[in-house]
Design goal:
The chain has 336 residues and is α/β, with parallel strands linked by helices. It is built from eight helices and 13 strands. It has a six-stranded mixed sheet. It has a five-stranded mixed beta barrel with strand order 1-2-3-5-4. The protein has a two-stranded antiparallel sheet with strand order 6-7.
Length: 336
């Protein structure tokens, strides 16, 4: 073994060469305390558009963030060129803590969850009353995802000129979900946008719905200066629409203080990431009655204490039915 004395010739010490020619790696990461705050507006092939002090800035994720990805609605910290000029690029060095998270999986067997939107206050579930027909199971799944992610739901029913909303309102009336009914004529003259806007003022609202229900048309009415391409085409055979929005986009609400996040149309809303035991938290009038339930109760079995709780008059039977209908969506495929 070669030994070195007190006075060593540094040129005589063998060091491992750095093949890339850059600085040696270190576990010490910069804190970026002077980074600017921003909000992610949209994500496109690894490039993120962020709003920083009123300026739209193109950015990319810093390597030190690893696999952690930023999504629309995220509050982030940025460094680098923040001018927003053409061909400039900033760097996202930190993703701040999220207040809410809307997630979904491709189906109930998919182990990989997809984060749709972060930090939204409200989820507007848009459904047509006809052309295409309403899909209650998809609505139920969106409700479960909203409750689990910390978002308040809002039900928006479109195309009331083609069918009345009575049947759908009967299904969801017991959930006490705020709702708005619109028609094509009201969308054209602005009345529908005004009524919906009242529910959006002061909030960040994500819009979700399957293709062809008029979701993007409604967003265009709410933010007319940022019109997105719409098609209005519904397949006559399948009754399904064609995707008109291909990426989520956050837009400032016109005529009010708030944000609208338009998301791509969905044909399924998997709930593989949802723990069914958390759905009960959306029903405070029933949650107290679960104290007498057996361990790991599914709330839909003979020994469930909620049946006695309701029979004693502590809650409306329709509320228990609604809870069990929502829980059942977690166990079955979304097919209609």
């Amino acid at each position: 073994m070669r030994r070195y004395g007190k006075h060593t010739d540094e040129d005589d010490i063998r060091t491992r060469p750095n093949r890339k020619g850059n600085r040696p790696r270190t576990n010490i990461r910069p804190k970026h305390e002077d980074a600017a705050e921003g909000m992610v507006l949209t994500v496109d092939r690894g490039r993120l558009t962020c709003l920083v002090d009123g300026t739209a800035v193109t950015a990319m994720k810093a390597r030190e963030l690893g696999r952690k990805a930023a999504v629309v609605g995220d509050r982030v910290a940025l460094v680098g060129d923040l001018t927003g000029k053409k061909d400039t690029l900033a760097r996202i060095v930190r993703i701040e803590e999220r207040s809410s998270l809307l997630r979904r999986t491709a189906d109930d067997d998919d182990p990989f969850e997809r984060v749709v939107v972060a930090n939204a206050d409200q989820l507007a579930i848009v459904t047509a009353l006809a052309d295409p027909e309403p899909r209650p199971r998809l609505i139920d799944r969106c409700l479960v995802a909203a409750y689990d992610g910390g978002l308040e739901p809002l039900l928006v029913m479109t195309k009331s000129d083609l069918a009345p909303p009575d049947k759908l309102l009967e299904l969801y009336g017991d959930l006490d979900i705020p709702y708005v009914v619109t028609s094509r004529e009201e969308l054209e003259n602005g009345d529908a946008a005004d009524r919906v806007r009242e529910h959006l003022d002061g909030k960040i609202t994500a819009f979700v719905g399957h293709s062809g229900v008029g979701k993007t048309t409604l967003v265009n009415a709410l933010v007319p200066e940022e019109r997105r391409r719409t098609t209005g085409h519904v397949n006559a055979v399948t009754g399904r629409g064609r995707h008109t929005t291909t990426s989520a986009l956050a837009l400032p609400l016109t005529g009010a203080d708030g944000w609208v996040i338009d998301t791509p149309g969905v044909r399924s809303f998997g709930l593989a990431h949802i723990d069914p035991s958390r759905v009960i938290h959306a029903f405070p009038d029933l949650e107290s009655g679960t104290e007498g339930c057996p361990r790991a109760c599914s709330h839909d079995e003979p020994d469930c204490a909620l049946d006695a709780w309701v029979e004693e008059g502590h809650a409306d039977p329709a509320r228990l039915y609604s809870l069990r209908r929502l829980l059942a969506t977690r166990e079955r495929k979304e097919g209609d």
